[in-house]
Amino acid sequence: MEFKDFIYEKAEPLAYLYLNRPDMKNAFTTPMLDGLYEALQDASRDSKIKVIIIKGKGEAFCAGADIKDMISGKLRSWGMKTYLATKVQRIPLFLEQMDKPVLASVDGPAYGGGFDLALACDLRIASDRARFCSTVVRIGLAPGGGGAYYLPRLIGISRALELLLTGKELNAQEALELGIVDRIVPAARLHEETEAFAMELAQWPLPSLRATKKALYYGLASDLKGHLDYMSSQLALLTETEEHQQCVRKIAAKIGVL
């Protein structure tokens, strides 16, 4: 699969999705967003892929929407509505229902819509030169890619409001302390550490990864009784998988009960 402004690679059990416009800090283009969406769909369908990694080429994760498109008038009025609904917002919607872990690997700036994209991922690993900012208030706009949805769920309403209303920029350490990122690593080792982080997840059976991710997100939207009922059904199905039975036999042999 080849795309403009976007690179998609697989190295089983991982899939790498690269925003590829480094000269513009990986600011979004329509072909880039199309590539990202199609690659996510493919990685979701591929039974050999367990974990998806989203990165930016060069020394930036993503600067969000291209200011040139705003100046040209492409992103005005219903043009903005259409752009968000058909190009940008389908990505967090797909990520929400995708049942494989998605890891954002953030180097340099994650601004505006790029910040929203990082927040939409399940986990975030950052280089020590990563920076995070909801820049939209600085240009008279508001978060359109899910930032105002995800951020309070990560750090609470008050702190989220402070960041969104002030347009404050966070360095990697500040983002870690707030709970926006999960790990910080040296920039020179970001790729290797991201892969190692992803493989911590990918070592486990895919049915278990899928069910666990669903358990967490479905649990946020249900009451306890509904959640427990759903999980009892999921575990009933998981006990029938070959992966579960192999794991149980392996542990049993190791502790000498076979």
Offer a quick outline of the entry:
With 258 residues, the chain is α/β, with parallel strands linked by helices. Helices cover 51% and strands 15% of the residues. It folds into two domains: 6-202, 2-enoyl-CoA Hydratase, Chain A, domain 1, CATH 3.90.226.10; 206-255.
Describe the protein's architecture and organization.
The strands form 2 sheets. A 6-stranded mixed beta sheet has the order 1-2-3-4-6-9, sandwiched between helices. The protein has a 3-stranded mixed beta sheet with strand order 5-7-8. The protein has helices at residues 30-45, 67-72, 78-88, 90-97, 113-120, 147-155, 157-166, 172-178, 190-202, 206-220, 224-238, 242-255, and strands at residues 6-11, 14-19, 51-56, 102-106, 109-111, 123-127, 131-133, 170-171, 183-185. Helix content is 51%, strand content 15%. Helix 1 (30-45) packs parallel to helix 4. It is an alpha/beta fold. The chain contains 12 helices and 9 strands. It starts with 5 loop residues before the first strand and ends with a helix.
Count helical runs: 12
Q: Biggest sheet, in brief?
A: 6 strands, mixed
Order of helices and strands: EEHEHHHEEHEEHHEHEHHHH
Q: Low-confidence runs (pLDDT<50, min 5 residues)?
A: none
| Distance separating the two termini | 47 Å
Helix content: 40-55%
Question: Strand share of the residues?
Answer: 15-25%
| CATH architecture descriptor text of the largest domain | Alpha-Beta Complex
Could you give the count of β-strands?
9
Strands ordered across the widest β-sheet: 1-2-3-4-6-9
Overall number of structural domains:
2
Q: What is the average of the pLDDT values?
A: 94
Highest CATH level, the class of the largest domain: Alpha Beta
Radius of gyration: 19 Å
CATH topology of the largest domain: 2-enoyl-CoA Hydratase, Chain A, domain 1
Q: Write the CATH homologous superfamily of the largest domain.
A: 2-enoyl-CoA Hydratase, Chain A, domain 1
Global morphology? globular
Structural class designation:
alpha/beta
